[in-house]
Structures are given as C-alpha cells and as structure tokens.
Amino acid sequence: MATPILVVDDSPMARKMLIKSLPSTWDVEITQAVNGKEALDAYRAGKADVMFLDLTMPVMDGYEVLENIQKEGLNSFVIVVSADIQPLAQERVKKLGAMAFIKKPVNPDLIESVLKQYGIAL
Amino acid sequence: MSTMQLTEDQRDAMQEIANIAMGQAGSLLAELLGNFVNLSVPRIKVLELAEVAHAIRDMVGSDIDVTAVRQSFQGYLTGEALVIYGQDGCKELGDLMGYDEALDRSEETELLLDVSNILVGACLGGIVDQIKNLTEAQGTAELGFSAPSVMAESVPADALINPDKLSWTHALLVEVNFTLEGRNFISHLCMLMPEHSIDKMRSILDRFIESF
User: Fold this and answer.
1) Number of domains comprising chain B
2) HSE of A15 in the Cβ direction (CA atoms, 13 Å)?
3) ipTM over 0.95
4) Residues of A engaging B, defined by a Cβ cutoff of 8 Å
5) Does B188 or B154 have the greater pLDDT score?
6) Is A21 within 8 Å of A52 (Cβ atoms)?
7) Which residues contact A78 (CB under 8 A, 6 or more apart)?
8) Which CATH number characterizes residue B30's domain?
9) How many residue contacts between A and B have a Cβ separation below 8 Å?
10) pLDDT above 80: residue A121
11) Mutate to test the interface with A, among B9, B12, B16, B212 (most CBs of A within 10 A)
C-alpha cells in the first residue's frame, strides 16, 4: 500500500526539488502543504505517515508544527528539511520530536539513507 | 509592467536559492555572536531604480534610523550589497562579541565591517555556488568584492539609495534579514543587481527550474 507522505514548504520550487529527490522505488501518496497550518490539517487527516517539514515559513513555521504535533501525540515520522543549518536549530527540532534533519539543497542519497536507517522506504 | 519582471516560477526559484544561501550566512553569524539567529523568508522584487529607496524603507521600517555598510560585487554577478542595521546595532554587536569595555568608534566600525563582510560573502557566495553550473561560464564562477565601507550612519532608510548616483534603470532586490533571539538586533542584507544582471539571472533561473 502506498505510504501517505506530506511535503511542507512555502516554496513550490523547494517542494518540487524534494519530491524529485525521493527514492523512485518508494510507493507513496504525496500531499503538499504551503505552510504549517495546512500541514497540521493534512496531518490530522492522516495524510502524513512521513512528513518532510521546512522550518522558515509564513503563517505558521515548522517549529510550531512540531509543537502542535507533540501536544497531540506524535503519530508521524517527521524529517525536517531546512536551509537553517545552525546546530541549535537541529537540536531544537529533535527535542520537538523530529526524527531527522536534512539540510537544503537536498541530497537524494542522504534522503534514501535516512529512510533506510529507520526502515521506512524500499 | 516592465519586461524586467520575474515570472512567478523565477521569483520562487530565486527565493529558494536565497533561502539556502542565507542559511549558510546565518549559521556563520550565529557562531560568531554565540546567539541563535532567526532567518527571514527572503523577499524578491524587480524595481525601477526610482522605486528602490522606497522599497528598502518599506522593508526596514520608516520609524527608525539606520546605519549601513556597502559592498559592491562583480564577476559572475554584478551589483551592490547593503547591510543595514538599526541605530543601536553597532553597540549591540560589541556587547554580543563579549567586549566588556565600550568600544571606541573605530573599533565599532571595524566590527560592523567585519560582520557585514561575512554576511555578504556567505550569502552571495552561497547564491553563486548553487547556480554556477547553469551557465556557459562554468568553473569560472568567481565573484569579486570591493572592501566594505560604511555608507551612512543614523539616517532614514530611504536616504540610503540616491538614484542619481547609479546609472541603472532597474534593480533586482533580494532582501533577507537576520534577527537575534532574545536581543533587539536586526540586520537586513539587501542585494541589488542592475538590468544586465537581471537578464542573466532570469536565464539562469529558467535553467535552474528546468533542472528539476
């Protein structure tokens, strides 16, 4: 069965880059969200077994998404995908329940190895 | 609307490229100042030269006076970079760097120039790194910078750009800003590129978009 995944980024370009970097053999059903609010809606609708989450976004940022998900009982495998490469940013998102941090621009091999590491894809 | 304008796809691609570049600059700033840096969503605009001063004021705010450092760049891309600080930015910087004694004026200026130089170099370098494989000039994607200089102190933001002093007709304005968590500090980095660089950038962005 296809895995429901959610790609959250305010930039259509960034979403496209991420989706193109996913392993081609991974059977997924992709939903996209342009900000944290949309992401939470999709998450609550069960469309985010795996979530690729940007941090810097208008309306609601990635940190807030993580906080909300944590409050509601984390039921998604969240991989933060961000240009914010401060070590403290990575520490914070992990504390908030993110499983992994991938820096932009995304590297397909790195995505694949993170997914494999947690036994998700393939 | 002028033909200089970016398409929605081009603007989006430019924004994402700027986002990645500012992440690298922000990380350096965080390390230098020992403080968490909040990154902005980059703002991208193509403007007629006469509109630039106003646009910068809108971004920086009209209620404060600013101090700005200027650095020009040429080579792969050409233009002017302005790093704009709130009036107290320089004093705050000295404090953040852990100087106990108040800095004298020349030390303060030196610090301001150093920080600006790091932000401009990292941001523009980060942009070029991402696009350098997309033009004929592959491998020669070098960028040269002038020495940074203080262009204005304690002036309103719309006084920074004097259209009479530039021979451009249009400018591509890329603005990112860095704020420090728990501090009253903001630094805007405005990168301005004239019409021939806009043309070049538009075709680079098209190739960037096609590559995904």
Assistant:
1) 1
2) 18
3) no
4) 10-14, 16-17, 20, 56-58, 82-86, 88-89, 103-105
5) B188
6) no
7) A50, A51, A53, A66, A69, A97, A98, A99
8) 3.40.1550.10
9) 56
10) no
11) B16
Token pair for B54:
């106003």
All structural domains of chain A: 3-117 (3.40.50.2300)
CB-CB contact of B13 with A13 (8 Å): yes
Residue with tokens 């500090």: B185
3-state SS assignment for residue A33: strand
Q: Is residue B210 part of a domain?
A: no
Task: Give the pLDDT band (50/70/90) at residue B137.
Answer: low
For the stretch A20-76, pLDDT in tens is 999 999 999 999 999 999 999 999 999 999 999 999 999 999 999 999 999 998 789
Mean pLDDT of B131-145: 76
In a domain, B211, yes or no: no
Model confidence at A119, pLDDT cuts 50, 70, 90, reads: confident
Please state, in angstroms and rounded to a whole number, the distance separating the CA atoms of residues A84 and A37.
20
Residue B17's domain spans which residues?
A: 8-196
Residue B201 maps to a domain = no
pLDDT score of B1: 46
* Nearest residue of A to residue B19, measured between CA atoms: A83
| Amino acid in the structure at residue B192 | L
